[in-house]
Amino acid sequence: MTTNNPSNFNQDKSQKQNFLAIAVTVGVILLAIIGFLAYNNISKAQQLDLTVTELEESEKLRGEMETQYNQALADLEAQKTTNQELNAMIDQQKAELEQQRTKIDGLLKNKGKLDKARVEIDNLKTQASGYLAQIEKLKTENQALAGENATLSEEKNKLSTDLQGKLAENEQLASAKAKLVSEKEELSGKVNIASVIKMKSVTAVGQKVKGSGKVKDENSAKSVDQIKVCFTTLTNEVVRPSTEKFYVRIVNPLGETLAIEDMGSGMITNKKTGEEIRFTKIEELDYSNEEAQSCMVWAPSNPSFVKGDYTVEVYNKGYLSGTATFKLK
Q1: Taking 90 as the threshold, does the pLDDT of residue 112 lie above it?
Q2: Number of domains, the chain
């Protein structure tokens, strides 16, 4: 027969209680570990989901940006024309869009700046729309300017045509005026010629002045002190009664005109030849459409006459009206 020992029983009970406490503690620890691991896994899963979402959003935004950017480039390129100024502006706008694209691309690489990237993408769209509006405005202005230029060109052509007509008309008027002037000058010349008082006779002789003041004709060159020229006019009904000037020219045998400025010599124009000629002295005569006679004396202070044939010419109104010759021995 077996007998139970109370001490052994208590010992077994104590061991069981210790084991149970250890088991409970281990269980709590295991539960805590399992809970931590579960929470950590959930957090990682959530973080992974967030990362995936951000990546998807980033790619979505990148695609949206690329679509808008490429569309903007295509729209700008389609606006190009033969206008070099406009094309240069479009190229500048494309370069500015490229800078905006680079800026957005940098924001998309930073997951924390996706909101800013969205804003800049909207700005890209607004920027592209603004460029197109700017181009359209410039084209409208260019068309208006082209219209104005066409109008100005038409007006210029009209003015040029009118000017050519006026020039042709002026040329005709100038030609008619020149013809009238020529006819007037011709008529005036004829009138002048008709009004020239011709000489009935012209005479010239050398003279010697004696000590008593008496004068006698002399034909010896070394003895002559002065030359006397007399002329008689013809009747000319064309000329109005007035004081007429007659220019007397004495030419010596050497072909020289006897002239001294202080004694009244000067220059006249031969209206027939246009030649400038020197005259010896002017003789004025009151003319009343009848024959009249006048005489002049050429008496230099230091007379020195050469031998030979002398010629005397009398001019009225620039035309030769009479001549004479005389000889000194």
Answers
A1: no
A2: 2
